[in-house]
What we know:
Structural class: mainly alpha
Order of helices and strands: HHHHHHH
Amino acid sequence: PGSWGNLPIHYACSSAASAEVVKVLLEAHPGGARTYNNTTENMLPLHLACRWGATKDAVMEILTMHPESSILRDSSGWVAMEHAKKLDSKHPSRDGLIAALKLAPLFVAISKRTHVAAKPKHSATIKELEENHKEHVRELDGQFQQAHLDTQRVKDELSIARKELEAAASEYEALDMACVKAKARIRKLKRYSEKGSKEVKSLVAAFALDMHVGVDTTAEKPELVTSQD
């Protein structure tokens, strides 16, 4: 809305716009025909059209869209017909406006009859839409439940995988520790082996030395003594 709560249709009717302009505005915003502006006069587009001398065709467009506006009053208590009759008798639109407004009761009756005739169809349509909506909600609920189950399944699988990874990590850590201990034992055994090898070599050398010292190669061989008869 513009200043004072006026819609484009209010400005058009206040400016005696053509029927074509009024039709385009109402097609763009059908609710504008039943909208009061926020001025102190509190007028509908039909009130403004009749007050400012719009054409008969422009008024017919408004009545076609919202015929009930012909019996609604502004803040002064005036209906559209009273605004039309207040126009100067020589105004070119006065007689046409009055003639159009005299057809307003017929428009109202047709509108009510159309509403009554269309009500069962509309009710059926609304019921069908509600059923479709419920079905759609059920489908969405089923999809949501399935997605929830899938999500929970993935969470469980991830939890199992995490536990397996933790177990594998513990086993790897234990194997790594065992490897470290094995390497330390191998180094210790190697040192023992090297020490033992040295001791064996020393013993062998000592034994060989003892063997060499115990044999006197310079001593004379004893003579064999034979008895004489």
